[in-house]
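Here is a protein:
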Amino acid sequence: MCLVKLVYTSASSKILDHVTPSVRPIAPKTLALLVAGVLLAHGLLLQVSSRLGSSDQAPTQRALTTRIIEIKPTQAKPAEAGPPQPTKPRPAASPAPTGPSLIISEATESKPEPEPELKPIPNNDAPTLAAPPEPDRAEVSPVAQADATPAQPIPSVATQALSIAGSVRLKYDVTGEVKKRAYSAGAELLWLHDGQTYDARLEISAFLLGSRVQTSSGRLTAQGLEPKRFSDKVRSELAAHFQRDKGRITFSANTPDAPLLAGAQDRLSVFFQLAALFAGEPLKFPPKSSIALFTAGARAADSWLFQVEDLEKLELPGGEQLALKLIRQPRHQYDQTVEIWLAPNLAYLPVRIRLSQSNGDFVDQQWRASEIP
């Protein structure tokens, strides 16, 4: 105790040496009591802390926890109330293209341009009739085949619907009789067009009898076929010319001219004109109705009046065909009797043609096959 007192006394004297002379010095006895009190308090604190540390309760182990923070897009604060602003409608999403891409650009504050006029492009496989710019036109059907269905017609200016068959080659077996002598032959009817002009050719050839060739060429219009030239050749060729600038039909045989009437045909084009009329609007010509067409041959022209008969089932070399029969009765002593059968399955093209003379001669051609030329 004396040693502690001496130590604190010595320490106290050293501290007092650094005290400013203006501070009154503390008595050594008082300072010793203060130091002893501080030490005593410090010891009591240590004892209390050791007792708390020696408690029987195990210290609680803090568990490791994690937090998942979900980041959500910041929502815009609602704007202050005000007058509603007009919103521009958003265009609807276009479906994904299945073919070539089509890019459509919108021009701001621009007027739409008029659509360009589409002009048909002639095609031998699927021809299109290039009619003049009129409200109604004749329609050209696809290439005629045995199982073809006539295309839907478009009414023409003359309030009649036309559907012109596509290019085709028809083959026939021919039987006939000349001056009581029977014969057999083959025939081919070729029909070609590009949607604007046409060419037709019928050739009948028989062994030892030679051949006969008829041709017709001209234009396709909203009224159907418009022939320009017709020729008929057996040994020599005779022709009829449709001079539309003069309104006349002239003949190379030096026979009198004939007037060129509206819708005039020749003896070959008349078959295709009839086919176009029936294919365009078959219900317009019921049985017992009649169709008049001014028709030119190689020497003269006259009005042919066809009477519509019933549908008939024909057994032909090329197979069975359901066909509509038309008949032209002779008007004069030496006129031909013309019978034709038009088959709906062949775009109403003729599957049978029978020409009978007043003296008993006849030629009967029956469909055997059809081909794409």
Observations:
- The longest strand covers residues 301-316.
- Residues 336 and 357 are 5 Å apart (CA to CA).
- The longest helix spans residues 28-53.
- Residues 1-23, 54-81, 88-158 have pLDDT under 50 and may be disordered.
